[in-house]
Prior knowledge:
Blueprint: H1 12-19, E1 24-30, H2 34-45, E2 50-53, E3 69-70, H3 74-78, H4 82-98, E4 103-112, H5 117-132, E5 141-144, H6 145-151, E6 162-171, H7 173-186, E7 190-192, E8 195-203, E9 206-214, E10 220-230, H8 236-246, E11 259-270, E12 279-282, E13 291-296, E14 299-303, E15 307-308, H9 320-333, E16 345-354, E17 371-375, E18 381-385, H10 391-404, H11 447-451, E19 459-461, E20 464-465, H12 466-475, H13 481-488, H14 491-494, H15 496-514, H16 520-531
Parallel strand pairs: 1-2, 1-10, 2-7, 4-12, 10-18
Antiparallel strand pairs: 3-6, 4-6, 5-6, 8-9, 9-10, 11-14, 11-15, 11-16, 12-13, 13-14, 17-18, 19-20
Amino acid sequence: MAIETQPLLTRRGELMARLSEARQYDIAVVGGGSTGLGVALDAAARGFSVVLVESHDFAKGTSSRSTKLVHGGVRYLAQGNIALVREALQERTTLLSNAPHLAQPLAFIMPSYKWWETPFYGLGLKMYDLLAGKAGLGKTEFLSRAETLALLPTAQPESLVGGVKYWDGQFNDARLALALARTAALHGALLLNYCRAADLLYEGGKLAGLVCEDTLTGQPYRINARCVINAAGVWVDELRQKDAAANEADGAHPTKPMVAPSQGVHIVVDREFLGADVGLMVPKTADGRVLFAVPWLGKVILGTTDTPRHDLAREPLPFKEEVDFILNESARYLRRAPVRADVKSVWVGLRPLVKPQGEDGDNTKGLSREHTVLVSHSGLVTVTGGKWTTYRAMAEDVLNVCIQNALIEKRKEGTTAHLKLVGSGPPGMKTTSICQPPGLHSYGDEQSQVMSLPGAHVALCEGVTEAMVRFAARYEYAITVEDVLARRMRLLFLDARLANSLAAQVGEILVHETGLDPQVEAFSELAQHYLRLPE
């Protein structure tokens, strides 16, 4: 059954007024990425009172910078992590069912250039099908050379002997994060972006809430909560260290960092380099990494890398060797290889890989992709690691840990496995492929609501209208130009030059809608950042 969309309380002043009310929440969540939003939705759906604060915009960090794949993890299968693959495959099906307008099946071609690659990798992918069981999206097929080129005509034909076709999923990560936020709000949660968790509150040595700050005004707010969940992704250690310092006298153990950030770089080029609505997957590049070429919103994403990173920059830059690696490896598998001049946008995400306590090495490829939940001496619950595909299972696990540690009382079991997200529409609703350029299809059954707003027929560029900007401000928590063009419309990730050309127009609409500074100049600087290739 589709969710009935109602006007959401997303106006900034009204949200902050609610936050200032004296009350005690069951749960306060710090972090508005996939994990924090998943926890907020699960908790609100169970009937808990929930507040979530995010220091920047929802999905500003890692959760908007994925490879856009909803997958079980073919490489995890090669590592022998059967449990992780099986869980992710089940969650893949759940996600595709609960948000069909934002997550859909996608066929992948794995070209073979050596005689043994088709049977070797094909049998592994047959096991992938077996693990998926009824949750499978399509059967793995062994392809001849001609069949491979028919499905992927831009594949490098020289030395090609065949290939394998298998199925996984793709999605619109930042818009899925917004769907989680809005669905949580419909279930009573209070969610605030641009609201930083500045400090923690204690009573009798136990965590009792937090102090947050509206980053737009500097106004502090006190949040009383029975349980505080630290879901800040690669930034979880900052709050953990505050907690340890506050409780050092009460016997708390010294806190060692639990996250080893790994940098993933993605390069975006025009669709013509792939030329089909199928993905390309290379299971083992020159240095043993996996390379993808994924059609997405009218462009192609090339990546990704896996490089240790020791700082926690909000907008990390790619390293020269990472860009060279992606372009050079692409040249080995594509008939026409993209060069630096073809790059429309380049962006970097930091993966929150969990570091075993006492582990100081730099081999992030060997670190766990599974999530970890820890409870501190004072009761701070920290969750990090994992991946987008398993966000829902992670949220259930977090709440179960909270209940087991008597931080919240047990209520009904989790209901999110069958909880449709905002925009999902009724079963069987026709959806447009995510491979297509941005447009109304990202809104699912809310398209008519967007069309009812002023500017529905005023195009800012192909697929993006004035009404979409107004919808982002009224219903999707958007405040700045970056919020709109990076995470509501995705244009910054697709074509940074085009996004920059629209900044002033979008800024004018936002001022009219919100009365707040849309930060046009800051966005223009950021757009240059997404165009910058290291020399």
